Amino acid sequence: MSLSKTEEQLMEIIWKKGEIFMKEIIETYPDPKPATTTIATLLKRMQVKKFVGYQLYGNSRAYFPLIKKSDYFSKHVNGMIKDYFDNSALQFASFFATNTKLSQNELEELKKIVEAQIKKGES
Amino acid sequence: MSLSKTEEQLMEIIWKKGEIFMKEIIETYPDPKPATTTIATLLKRMQVKKFVGYQLYGNSRAYFPLIKKSDYFSKHVNGMIKDYFDNSALQFASFFATNTKLSQNELEELKKIVEAQIKKGES
DNA sequence: GAATTTATTCTACATTTGTAGAGTTAACTC
DNA sequence: GAGTTAACTCTACAAATGTAGAATAAATTC
């Protein structure tokens, strides 16, 4: 079971806050804000799909993610690599480095990250 | 308008071949193969969405992509960066480098790619 | 404590997606 | 040329998704 685009957006709001009340969720949306019932429905479905849970505080619910954003995107990206880049992470990385607008500075940063990652693996 | 997961899979088949006939499409799918009508429906929808076109050869159609795979994934990945990584490509790159299982060799390769990209920008 | 606000469930309905049968037509096969 | 195969259109239908009203219940406010 995976999330739809709209559910993913909501999920992102929940990830950002870590724990969030209905009222805050609605506030987060830009106008025109969705009806609370709409959000309630999404939250319900996401609970069924085991992506969010909630903690009762007195009588109100604080919703929280049941999956880490990094895990979610790992799966997501790895799925993409598998399905559309011949299962080659490198191919994807190459595509990414050449097709995304990274500034010189960002490229330098990225280089550092990669180097650090290499170091890490060497130990 | 964007493609659903299933349509994307079919799109990938079309990208791979560049130009492809119905029969070949079906052959590409693993068992249990979908009904030809299923594929026909998907193709029809993808034509409406302007993702594929076809060229008549005598009486049969050779389907081909109307969008380049690199363009499609650029949009895709950039959308992901925008929606879930604070619009920071670097943040995504960092996530990618640390969360995807790249071998030492692949990391070295990636480093080279990044370096090449840096060189390119310097000119 | 009556009136208002807020959150929740239940129900509903339109749209999109996944899948494919029925029917048609052209092509291919003896 | 009668029978088989292939591809296409049209129709259909179930499931998933996007959106929200009605009803209810609790909390907040005068």
From TrEMBL, chains A, B:
Origin superkingdom: Bacteria
Classification via InterPro entries: BlaI_family, WH-like_DNA-bd_sf, WH_DNA-bd_sf
UniProt KW keywords: DNA-binding, Transcription, Transcription regulation
Keyword Glycosyltransferase on entry: no
The UniProt record lists the keyword Acetylation: no
Family: Belongs to the BlaI transcriptional regulatory family.
Name of the protein: BlaI/MecI/CopY family transcriptional regulator
Organism: Pedobacter albus
Organism lineage string: Bacteria, Pseudomonadati, Bacteroidota, Sphingobacteriia, Sphingobacteriales
